[in-house]
Write a structure and sequence with these properties.
By secondary structure, the chain is α+β, with helices and mostly antiparallel strands.
Length: about 325
């Protein structure tokens, strides 16, 4: 009797196990058969999704997640996209004998573009022949850093600066530069669910350039322009895109510039202006350029005056009045 109960229990266990195996196999079959893959990108990069399918199909459809399809091959290749994605998506298909392919390109990929992109092929209307899924994962760096003096002075005339930036999916930090040198940090980067915080040590002297960056792709100091601080006057600046003196002003690259924002005690902007910071070399080059232009203009004016004088002389020599006067002089000479 005991043996029969054991056999019955084993039989039930085997049946349950088989049912579970069939369920798991059935659930994973579509994903394994369609060749699903995941591609990783960093925000701003170009993404290329490649799909292949048989050529004897009726329609090819692409959609992301559970949204409505944004591409139908039967619609002439038109893309139905939100406003923020228009111009950044393109689809190119190629037909080669029995094998066809489609390439979905996403330019300047953004974090909102992440998702599962599914390409479905229809043999006939409402008859799915095959589908292929590609997952897109987008990493993004921290946002722009906002820094300010916290009034805590250190030894040697230095002062601490508190910086905060929106947190990104990539691990980040905040760097500051002064006189072309990278500054030391008083605290390690601290990331919460919403922000990235860090305190750095600066000298109470020249301008300080701070920015958020990542450990994987650190920014060059010439790109570090999130916040610019004058520690002496306790003012914040909005720097030009390139702080390494390559910014052009009206076609002239001699004068680097930045726009100043004077703030009150509450941090509100009360004055904004543009400051030009010419160097000695740039002033000398500018003077030479102006002198050269003036000399060229003077030469051109002299040449024009000479041409006008020559034309007037020629007109006088060949004028009818001059010819009559010459004839009269000839007659007087013959009469004498």
């Amino acid at each position: 009797m005991l043996q029969m109960d054991v056999n019955k229990t084993n039989l039930i266990f085997c049946k349950v196990f088989n049912i579970l195996c069939i369920f798991i196999f059935s659930a994973t079959l579509p994903y394994s058969s369609c060749g699903s893959q995941v591609l990783n990108y960093i925000e701003g990069e170009e993404a290329r999704l490649n799909y292949s399918y048989p050529c004897d199909i009726y329609d090819v459809v692409i959609h992301v997640g559970h949204r409505a399809p944004f591409y139908h091959s039967t619609d002439g290749g038109k893309l139905l996209l939100p406003h923020d994605q228009e111009g950044r998506f393109s689809v190119r298909s190629s037909n080669k004998s029995e094998n066809c392919s489609l390439v979905l390109t996403i330019y300047n990929i953004q974090r909102d573009d992440a998702g599962t992109y599914t390409c479905i092929t229809y043999a006939e209307i409402e008859k799915v022949q095959d589908y292929n899924q590609i997952g897109v994962h987008v990493e993004y760096p921290p946002g722009k850093a906002m820094c300010s003096l916290n009034g805590t002075y250190q030894s040697g005339g230095s002062v601490s600066v508190q910086c905060v930036a929106p947190v990104g999916s990539m691990s980040g930090k905040i760097d500051c530069y002064q006189d072309g040198n990278k500054l030391d940090s008083l605290t390690r980067p601290f990331e919460s669910n919403a922000s990235l915080k860090q305190t750095l040590l600066i000298k109470h002297s020249s301008f300080v350039y701070c920015c958020s960056t990542t450990f994987v792709q650190p920014k060059h100091r010439c790109e570090c322009t999130d916040t610019v601080i004058d520690p002496v006057e306790n003012r914040k600046f909005v720097a030009s895109k390139d702080i390494c003196y390559s910014t052009t002003i009206a076609g002239n690259s001699m004068f680097p510039h930045f726009t100043t924002e004077v703030t009150d005690k509450k941090g509100d902007i009360i004055l904004a202006s543009t400051i030009l910071s010419p160097t000695n070399n740039s002033i000398h080059q500018n003077n030479v350029f102006l002198v050269s232009v003036i000399l060229i203009l003077v030469i051109i004016i002299i040449m024009l005056v000479c041409i006008l004088i020559l034309k007037q002389r020629r007109n006088k020599e060949f004028s009818p009045v001059n010819h009559v006067d010459k004839d009269e002089d000839m007659e007087k000479e013959t009469s004498l």
